[in-house]
């Protein structure tokens, strides 16, 4: 958040409130919607138990078959965030999804869109009203700040249109690489990466496709083993697989469609 695009909250809060906003903003920016359980001493995602290291050839073979089966079992996978096909609404919904559930976001956005349907409207929104609308999803102070500043930057710098490059998207308040991947893929059909959320991170390690300690390095590993034609679907299908089958604490290996090839099958 730089220059004239920063929405001032000083008129609403004391210096102590602003300090809390800054702390929470840093936390949300770090997570960028990943919702990882982090090691408090290192500030990194807790490393998930990983299968024994596989050769690169075996990783590619496994990744290819996994992508094929995902297409079979989740042929109609779609983004869980409701955004009416509008790239701007998707960008704001992605920002709001940090540290909360997609269902929670979908409950608050209808009223938000009713009051502020586009970038120009949200850029000039009443800060206190925006806070009240999104309060149920948590971190509402910093999220209100982020979405208003994001809307202002889109409105003033990009003519009200969501940019379509990683560099430009990541210049927006609260948007990091993972969020940019989601926006590019869902809104514009541009697959330049794989959005590694907590589910994709966990699956990648259980399948032995990565042994990295963080999301960015895990993504780099996945991009090397998955053919590019599957990158976009992995973002959607992998999340569904993680939520329904490859669950964090109690994976449903007994009914998993990939159990016969999974090196971490219990």
List its salient traits.
single chain; 266 residues; mainly alpha; Endonuclease III, domain 1; Endonuclease Iii, domain 2; 2 domains; two-stranded antiparallel ribbon; 2 strands; elongated
Describe the structure.
- With 266 residues, the protein is mostly helical.
- The chain folds into two domains: 3-32 and 80-188, Endonuclease III, domain 1 (Orthogonal Bundle), CATH 1.10.340; 53-79 and 194-255, Endonuclease Iii, domain 2 (Orthogonal Bundle).
- The chain has helices at 15-31, 56-73, 87-96, 102-115, 119-123, 127-134, 140-157, 166-169, 177-188, 198-206, 215-225, 231-244, and strands at 38-39, 44-45.
- It has a two-stranded antiparallel sheet.
- Strand 1 and strand 2 (44-45) form a beta hairpin.
- It starts with 14 loop residues before the first helix and ends in a 22-residue tail after the last helix.
- The relative contact order is 0.16.
- Residues 1-19 and 33-48 have low confidence and may be disordered.
């Amino acid at each position: 958040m730089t220059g004239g695009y920063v929405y001032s909250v000083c008129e609403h809060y004391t210096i102590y409130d602003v300090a809390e906003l800054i702390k929470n903003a840093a936390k949300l920016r770090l997570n960028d919607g990943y919702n990882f359980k982090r090691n408090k001493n290192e500030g990194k995602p807790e490393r998930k138990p990983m299968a024994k290291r596989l050769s690169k050839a075996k990783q590619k073979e496994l990744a290819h078959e996994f992508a094929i089966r995902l297409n079979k079992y989740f042929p109609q996978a779609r983004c869980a965030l409701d955004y009416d096909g509008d790239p701007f609404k998707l960008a704001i919904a992605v920002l709001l999804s940090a540290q909360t559930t997609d269902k929670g976001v979908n409950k608050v956005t209808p009223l938000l869109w009713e009051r502020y349907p586009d970038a120009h409207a949200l850029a000039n929104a009443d800060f206190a009203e925006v806070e009240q609308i999104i309060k149920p999803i948590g971190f509402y102070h910093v999220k209100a700040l982020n979405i208003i500043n994001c809307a202002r930057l889109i409105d003033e710098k990009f003519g009200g249109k969501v940019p379509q490059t990683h560099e430009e998207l990541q210049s927006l308040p609260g948007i990091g690489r993972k969020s940019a991947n989601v926006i590019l893929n869902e809104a514009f059909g541009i697959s330049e990466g794989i959005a590694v959320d907590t589910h994709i991170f966990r699956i990648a390690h259980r399948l032995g496709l990565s042994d990295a300690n963080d999301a960015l390095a895990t993504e780099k590993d996945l991009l090397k083993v998955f053919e590019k034609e599957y990158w976009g679907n992995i973002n959607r299908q992998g999340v569904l697989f993680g939520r329904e089958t490859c669950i964090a604490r109690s994976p449903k290996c007994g009914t998993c469609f990939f159990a016969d090839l999974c090196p971490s099958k219990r």
